[in-house]
User: Which sequence fits this backbone?
């Protein structure tokens, strides 16, 4: 298996990624995308868009990266979004406490601060940097905090996920969708997590790229119209019991391994996406979160894990978030975030309601009786405590006994009911996918000291390298013309006339370019090969001779086949 340091070295040398702020010593957990990296990253995003906007018909939004505290108080991030941290008492280096006990505990994420400290003592765990003693374990909130506005006391946070921007826009999106479910929404953009000690290259970053999907569905109908299209397709799962199984999507639902069709469908859709961008199919599995591992908002969650040099690594989470998010935002904002579920025919329903006793209210409260009656009838039966209720009218709190109200059973015809939608969320770590694609494509021949990135053509940042055999005798002008024509038609192309042909092929192979075109003297001299060029295939090293017109068409055909 490829070594992560080799891949990161290649990425840095060839312009895929660079350490951020390198001239100032860099910042751990931050990287800049170079020219090739931007193209590869964008190609992954376009594959993702093709799946969710193209195939599934979801809509896309772009929300702010800074949010007021109220948003993340409602979502639970202010109180729950934290990791356990410890410092070395000698060198003062910070560490994620759970990472220090990974070799001694199967699932350290679920341990409390006291349990982590106990494991330090039990196993004699010391500072990895200097062997000093470790200090107290404490919670550390991972959000970046800021203020909104100059001199403002309004606290804001850089978003740790893009999801909340979708949830707070639910009323707008619901109207846009003509008040219908299901409603699928996607968003890509930056997220920020103030990681304690990021030490795994692009796997754990402080500023990162996300691709998130929020699908709002009827809580009583978690079927999916395209489920039968994938029913017989297989994926590898690790349910909560820890055994690894390979089953069909249909079997996973029928056996209640995955609790509903829509969740299973998008777990499998995630596998399809990973394979389409170049992740090896036999290196993909889906692991169900343990009950004590589940995020505070999740009813169920499956992680897509990819086998890398770091081990099995989470790259995507597919969660059933239930109604957590909309319920919380409705509570904290006071806004109604529901869906009107219309019945096929009106139904007669029975419902308990609080009714005011107007004859008793009039004599007691006089001209305020009408206002108090309205406040009474706005209450729910659950608001009755110890045979009494409390209402607030004109800023005054009024306690009322059963003499002034009653709970009655009311029959009425209704055309539908309001429900809070549930949310299915496939959330993709774009940087992790980017790295996974590179590692799975990386191939280094030790004997030849030769590196090839076997990127899928649709993913490759450069599709074609165009070379003149020599930069003279008109060969360069023909090569430049071919390069420009391909580039103008939307095919990423690089012209390279420096060094030997072998060195130029090596440069293209190392960045994953699937094809190279060489203009030579046979292209310009009289004979049967005049007007032809050689087309070289990266993976087979095969070279074929084609006319200039045919080679361009051949490349376009091969790109269409890989799309």
Assistant:
């Amino acid at each position: 298996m490829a070594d992560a340091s080799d891949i990161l070295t290649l990425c840095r040398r060839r312009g895929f990624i660079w350490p951020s702020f390198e001239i100032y010593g860099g910042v751990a957990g931050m990287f800049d995308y170079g020219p090739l990296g931007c193209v590869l990253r964008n190609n992954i995003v376009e594959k993702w868009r093709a799946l969710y906007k193209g195939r599934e018909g979801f809509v896309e939004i772009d929300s702010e990266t800074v949010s007021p505290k109220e948003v993340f108080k409602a979502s639970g991030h202010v109180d729950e979004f934290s990791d356990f941290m410890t410092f070395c008492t000698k060198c003062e280096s910070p560490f994620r406490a759970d990472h220090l006990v990974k070799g001694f505990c199967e699932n350290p994420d679920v341990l409390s601060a006291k349990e982590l400290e106990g494991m330090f003592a039990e196993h004699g765990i010391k500072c990895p940097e200097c062997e000093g003693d470790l200090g107290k374990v404490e919670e550390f909130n991972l959000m970046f905090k800021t203020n909104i506005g100059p001199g403002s006391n309004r606290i804001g946070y850089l978003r740790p996920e893009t999801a909340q921007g979708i949830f707070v826009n639910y009323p707008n999106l619901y109207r846009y969708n003509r008040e219908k479910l299901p409603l699928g929404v996607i968003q890509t953009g930056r997220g920020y997590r103030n990681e304690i000690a990021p030490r795994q290259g692009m796997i754990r970053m402080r500023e990162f790229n996300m691709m998130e999907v929020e699908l709002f569905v009827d809580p009583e109908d978690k079927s999916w119209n395209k489920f039968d299209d994938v029913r017989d397709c297989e994926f590898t799962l690790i349910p909560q019991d820890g055994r690894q199984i390979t089953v069909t999507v249909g079997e996973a639902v029928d056996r209640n391994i995955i609790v509903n069709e829509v969740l299973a469908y998008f777990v499998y859709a995630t596998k399809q996406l990973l394979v389409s961008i170049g992740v090896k199919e036999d290196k993909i599995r889906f692991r169900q979160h343990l009950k004590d591992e589940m995020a505070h908002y999740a009813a169920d969650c499956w992680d897509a894990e990819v086998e890398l040099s770091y081990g099995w690594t989470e790259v995507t989470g597919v969660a059933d978030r239930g109604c957590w998010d909309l319920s919380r935002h409705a509570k904290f904002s006071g806004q109604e975030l529901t869906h009107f579920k219309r019945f096929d025919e009106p139904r007669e329903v029975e419902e308990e309601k609080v009714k005011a006793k107007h004859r008793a209210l009039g004599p007691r409260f006089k001209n305020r009786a009408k206002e108090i009656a309205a406040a009474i009838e706005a209450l729910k039966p659950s608001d009755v405590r110890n045979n009494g209720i409390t209402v607030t009218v004109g800023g005054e709190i009024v306690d009322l006994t059963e003499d002034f109200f009653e709970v009655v059973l009311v029959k009425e015809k209704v055309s539908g009911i309001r429900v809070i939608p549930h949310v299915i969320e496939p959330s993709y770590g774009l940087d992790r996918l980017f790295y996974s694609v590179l590692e799975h494509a990386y191939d280094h021949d030790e004997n030849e000291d030769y590196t090839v990135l076997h990127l899928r053509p649709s993913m490759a940042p450069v599709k074609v390298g165009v070379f003149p055999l020599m930069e003279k005798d008109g060969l360069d002008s023909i090569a430049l013309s071919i390069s420009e024509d391909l580039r103008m038609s939307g095919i990423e192309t690089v012209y390279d006339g420096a060094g030997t042909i072998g060195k130029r092929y090596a440069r293209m192979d190392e960045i994953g370019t699937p094809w190279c075109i060489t203009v030579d003297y046979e292209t310009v001299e009289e004979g049967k090969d005049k007007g032809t060029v050689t087309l070289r295939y990266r993976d087979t090293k095969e070279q074929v001779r084609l006319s200039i017109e045919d080679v361009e068409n051949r490349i376009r055909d091969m790109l269409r086949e890989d799309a």
The mean pLDDT is 94. The first strand starts at residue 17 and ends at 19. The two ends are 27 Å apart (CA to CA).
